[in-house]
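tokens incoming
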């Protein structure tokens, strides 16, 4: 049974417009104003569909808050800085980061909080979590203020819609979603792929029959917009997500409901839909926007370099035995290679002239602007 309140709407869309790209399907399923997943559900935590790093351990947001403080100092401690989070979910990461920010003199007072969030329902939750904090919400990064900015995103890019190319008989076609003949279910079809999409497939990789390549056009656009903002206003960006460090073939489009993987076409609007982030592509877009790029490093390496272990010891020292066990297991879950430590990765971007960022090795590019290749 694949029906959901969104199914009739998708069926009507297919009847009028023809097969849906995966991106259009994902956008409708996640953000349809009445029946979309993020507009109708409380997805986080044990009772929800998935759990994210800030919801697992307060150390995650705290260490990111300290990362921001270090970068703020590194960039000359400006008296005003926008602390921005894209896709903040419940607002937990921001709350933990702001608490940690207080320990660095002057930093908390310099911060103006900005959240980029598409879901009105989640905005209301964020307002509750961050009550007492002045927050400005944005639909997109394009309306951020003209000020030095630290821009964060945890599991933001994986929620942005992807398109899928599939290699058939020596050429790329596009995977699309259709109404199955004879029943009410949604199914798959392959359509001629537009040339501007095929152009984005990496020429260095040789596809075999049936290989799939995923392209997140929205992710590339947002990464470039963020980079242009940072290159122009100063600051840095930090993004953690699951995905591959090098562009690769594979079908990573997935649906989670109640912490179980389900068919991506089953009951649209009732499961979280994501795809692995192609960090190569994301950083390429950020470099085109004029930023210097860092990473990937694994989440385990990143949090360890920032001091998750001493932070856990400090928390455990003030905790009951039961709380101490929860604190330790939460932190382990974030950094263990068999848990979130390796699949999840961190990348960062910075305004031209920043040659080092906490938790990262040397930059993978100098900014295009510095090398003279950037003309925007
Ligand atoms: C997987 S959740 C991650 C939540 C949070 N960062 C965390 O780690 O718990 C994805 C978040 O991105 C938001 N989101 C999805 N698509 C978006 C878009 N196009 N623009 C802004 N926010 C979006 C969702 O509403 C949600 O807040």
């Amino acid at each position: 049974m694949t029906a959901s309140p969104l199914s009739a709407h998708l069926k009507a869309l297919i009847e009028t417009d023809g097969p849906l790209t995966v991106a259009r399907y994902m956008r409708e399923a996640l953000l349809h104003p009445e029946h979309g997943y993020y507009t109708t559900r409380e997805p986080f935590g044990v009772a929800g569909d998935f759990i994210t790093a800030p919801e697992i351990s307060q150390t995650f947001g705290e260490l990111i808050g300290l990362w921001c403080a270090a970068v703020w100092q590194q960039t000359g401690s400006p008296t005003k800085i926008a602390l921005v989070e894209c896709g903040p979910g419940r607002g937990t990461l921001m709350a933990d980061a702001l608490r940690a920010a207080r320990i660095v003199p002057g930093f908390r007072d310099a911060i103006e909080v900005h959240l980029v969030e598409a879901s009105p329902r989640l905005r209301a939750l964020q307002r509750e979590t961050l009550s007492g904090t002045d927050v400005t919400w944005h639909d997109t990064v394009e309306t951020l203020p003209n000020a030095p900015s630290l821009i964060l995103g945890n599991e933001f890019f994986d929620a942005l819609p992807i398109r899928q190319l599939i290699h058939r008989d020596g050429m790329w076609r596009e995977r699309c979603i259709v109404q199955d003949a004879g029943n009410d279910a949604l199914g798959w079809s392959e359509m001629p792929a537009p040339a501007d999409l095929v152009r984005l497939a990496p020429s260095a990789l040789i596809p075999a029959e049936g290989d799939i390549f995923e392209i997140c056009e929205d992710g590339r656009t947002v990464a470039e917009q963020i980079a242009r903002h940072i290159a122009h206003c100063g600051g840095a960006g930090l993004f953690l997500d699951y995905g591959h460090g090098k562009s690769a073939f594979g079908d990573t489009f997935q649906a989670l409901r109640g912490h179980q993987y389900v068919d991506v076409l089953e009951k649209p609007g009732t499961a979280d839909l994501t795809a692995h982030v192609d960090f190569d592509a994301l950083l390429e877009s950020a470099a085109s926007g004029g930023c210097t790029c860092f990473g990937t490093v694994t989440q385990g390496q990143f949090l360890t370099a920032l001091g998750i272990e001493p932070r856990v010891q400090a928390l455990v020292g003030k905790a009951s035995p039961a709380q101490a066990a929860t604190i330790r297991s939460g932190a382990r879950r974030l950094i263990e290679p068999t848990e979130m430590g390796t699949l999840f990765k961190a990348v960062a971007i910075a305004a031209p002239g920043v040659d080092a960022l906490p938790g990262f090795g040397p930059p993978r590019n100098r900014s295009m602007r510095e090398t003279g290749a950037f003309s925007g």
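note: Residues 38, 52, 54-55, 87-89, 93, 116-119, 122, 154-156, 159-160 surround S-adenosylmethionine (CB under 6 Å).
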